[in-house]
Amino acid sequence: MDARRTLLRRIKQYDFSLKELNLYLDTHPTCQRALAMFAKYKKLREQAISEFNAKFGPLTPEQNTDLQRWDWIADPWPWERS
Amino acid sequence: MWQYEKKLQYPVNIKNPDPKMAKIIISQLGGPDGELAASLRYLNQRFAMPYAEVKGLLTDIGTEELAHVEMISAILYQLTKNLSTEDIKASGFDTYFVDHTTGIYPVAASGTPFTATYFQSKGDIITDLHENMAAEQKARTTYDNILRLADDPDVRDPIRFLRQREIVHYQRFGEPYRTR
């Protein structure tokens, strides 16, 4: 469970960076520095999400790749201690 | 957490404004059996749900209801575009207009503002699932009533889609009873 938590924490950090850049870009849509940083974290996030999906399952319904089972519903849910 | 997608779940393209119809349809935004109450009902209830399948169901239907809030709001926006003062007075939309102009604000058709008393989160899975099945049927009846009052095919089409979703959600909420 520790490896899962560590990787999820990393995804959350990328998500937060992307969220901050998103809000900043909403009011500064031509800022080249922010656009470059957004692209950088987006790529890092995509890699981390792929790794998470392969090891621990989906974070969204669309990421459910198991053709035998709908893993989307699997515990734990985010509000539960794990 | 949530991510927004910049699209409607089902298209809304209404050519002719109709503020009188907006005054009726707004009940499915902020009324007793509306989409906002539906979303909050499921997204609150899921924390007390012990079964993974139903945690998923409440999360996913609660999320879909947010997309329905957006569809109803798009219908209201298009029905109240480019109104003349005469349109506003003659349609009875003036009682909403005075407080909200043409901004989207959750009220029932009667004008009563949205309230959390429209839904329950009881912390009891049997009670909550029955609440949800009843809520889906009540929303279905409201859509049937809107379809009795609406002539414009541009309005009827997305309303019929939303009515159909109530039936699907009712069906899904009934299924946890039989799987265990």
Largest sheet of chain B: none
What's the average pLDDT of chain B?
97
Please report the two chains with the greatest interface, counting residues with C-beta closer than 8 angstroms to the partner's C-beta.
A-B, 9 and 9 residues
Summed up, the domain count of chain A is 1
Unreliable runs of chain A, pLDDT <50, ≥5 residues?
none
Approximate shape of chain A:
elongated
Task: Please give the alpha-carbon distance between the first and last residues of chain A.
Answer: 8 Å
Strand content of chain A: under 5%
Discrete helix count of chain B: 8
Largest sheet report of chain A? none
Q: Are there runs of chain B of 5+ residues with pLDDT below 50, and where?
A: none
E-strand count of chain A = 0
Describe this structure in words.
The complex is a heterodimer of chains A (82) and B (180). Chain A has one domain (2-73). Chain A is elongated, with a radius of gyration of 15 Å. With 82 residues, chain A is an all-alpha fold. Chain A has two helices and no strands. By secondary structure, chain B is an all-alpha fold. In chain B, α1 (19-25) packs antiparallel against α4 (52-79), α3 runs antiparallel to α4 (52-79) and α3 packs antiparallel against α7 (125-149). The model of chain B has no long low-confidence stretch (mean pLDDT 97). Chain B has helices at residues 19-25, 27-30, 35-45, 52-79, 85-91, 94-100, 125-149, 153-174. The A-B interface holds A 15, 61, 72-75, 77-79 and B 1, 46-47, 52-53, 55-56, 59-60.
